[in-house]
Each structure stands twice: as C-alpha cells, then as structure tokens.
Design a protein that fits this description.
The chain has 245 residues and is an alpha/beta fold. The chain has 10 helices and 7 strands. A 7-stranded mixed sheet has the order 3-2-1-4-5-7-6. Helix 1 crosses helix 8 (190-198).
C-alpha cells in the first residue's frame, strides 16, 4: 500500500518542492499519439497536473493525502481525487499518459503497474521520474551530504534507496522502458534551500523522533559558506523511465 509521509507538512511541501524542467515534459509529449486524458498519480500539490492540464483535454490527479490536495494547484480541467496508486476508480483503457513524479518508491509497485496497465490505453505511455541527490558547489556539498547521510540519514524510509539508485532494482513489466536523464538547475537563496530540506520526510521524522529541529544548527554551518541573500545554483539530476505496453 502507498505510504504517506507528507500530509503533516503539506503546506511546506507545496511551497518548497521544485518543479520539473520543460525538456522532460517535451520529451514525454513527443512520444504520445493523442492528448485526450492523463492521470497524474501521487500528485501531491499538483505540480505535474498543472503542467499536464495545458496539453490534455482532461487530467485526473490522485493522492492519498487530503492535506496535500487542499494545497493543490487548481485548473479548470484538473479533477482531484483521494485515491491510492494501486486501486483507482477509473475505467479500463482511459489514459493516453500516466505520470508519477518522485513517488514510485512509496508504492506497492507490482499492484500499481497492474493498475496502470488496466487504466492506460494500449498505445499510451507511463512516465515515471525522480530527482536524485542535489549538488551546489564544493563548499556547500560536504556540509549538505553530512546532513543528508548522517544527521537525517537514519530517518529516511528504506524505499528512499530506490531514488538514489534511479529505480534500477525495480522491475518494470513493460514491453519497452526508455531511460533518459535531464537536469534541473535552480537559483535559490539560503532560505529556499533550507525550506526544501524542511520538506523532506526525513527532516520531519527527525523532529518528531528527537524533539527538536536539526536545521538551525545546520544553517549556522552553512552561513559560513552561503550568505543569507546570496543566490546559488542548486542542481538536481533527474531520471525518467518512459514505459510502453
């Protein structure tokens, strides 16, 4: 069953989660034959759905979190539903495209893939992507990796490893699975960077388990190499699995 680690901090998630590059969407769309209907699974705050609605007649967007959907981006042709990834209310052969952004590792993948096959059209596509561990520069990265691996590292769900491995150890039961890579480069100040780290499930679990916020102490260390108003380029490597029936 799909895991939910984001309901309790849905507004933080909505504010600080990065979007995805136009090149990724363009690549996916170039492989489609029609744009009648799309399903964005585990939509969160609707980042992907809000992009899909510019291209599809209808977009169905699902999540298991009421709180996430309460913060979702609205669109006249986006229909939000509370639903798991593994069992949906949709009819057979409904969608030209099914998308999953940064969420497959929280699913029961075997059940989800069966559901995706059921509701996807025969000539439709399943696009699954995620961003792996970010990088800033040689001064910031060692501090960041210490925070990622040592400070909140024990509080990552074991499924997080799948993202780090770009889903190589997940079986994709499809005729073809194309793998592509993209880059997302964002100019952030220190507050935006720390806000993103606060949106992590591991940071939230640390606070709940330990009883204090790990970010002030980390921020103090970062301020030695990152001035408060200074913008730095934060680079996210993005991987895509594009699947065909």
């Amino acid at each position: 069953m799909q895991k939910d680690y984001f309901s309790q901090h849905a507004s933080i998630y909505a504010t600080f989660r990065p979007s995805y590059p136009p090149e990724l969407y363009a690549y996916v769309f170039s492989h489609l034959k029609s744009f009648d209907a799309a399903w964005d699974c585990a939509t969160g705050n609707g980042q992907v759905a809000s992009e899909l609605c510019k291209h599809f007649t209808s977009v169905e967007a699902t999540d298991i979190s009421h709180q996430q959907l309460a913060n979702a981006i609205q669109g006249k042709n986006i229909h939000y539903h509370i639903s798991s990834a593994e069992q949906t209310p949709f009819s057979d052969a409904s969608f030209d495209l099914i998308t999953v952004g940064q969420a497959l590792h929280w699913f029961d993948t075997e059940k989800f893939f069966n559901e995706a096959k059921r509701v996807g059209k025969l000539d439709g596509k399943l696009a699954i992507w995620g961003y792996s561990v970010l990088s800033v520069n040689k001064e910031v990265d060692p501090l960041f990796y210490h925070y990622y691996n040592t400070i909140v590292g024990p509080y990552w769900d074991a499924a997080r490893k799948h993202i780090e491995e770009e889903y190589v150890n997940i079986h994709f039961p499809f005729r073809t699975v194309q793998t592509e890579h993209f880059a997302l480069n964002l100019e952030w100040d220190l507050d935006q960077f720390l806000g993103y780290l606060r949106s992590w499930s591991a940071t939230q679990k640390f606070m709940k388990a330990v009883g204090h916020d790990p970010l002030p102490a980390f921020s103090e260390k970062l301020q030695k190499v990152w001035k408060a108003e200074e913008k730095k380029v934060v680079s996210f490597p993005i991987f895509l699995k594009l699947c065909s029936r």
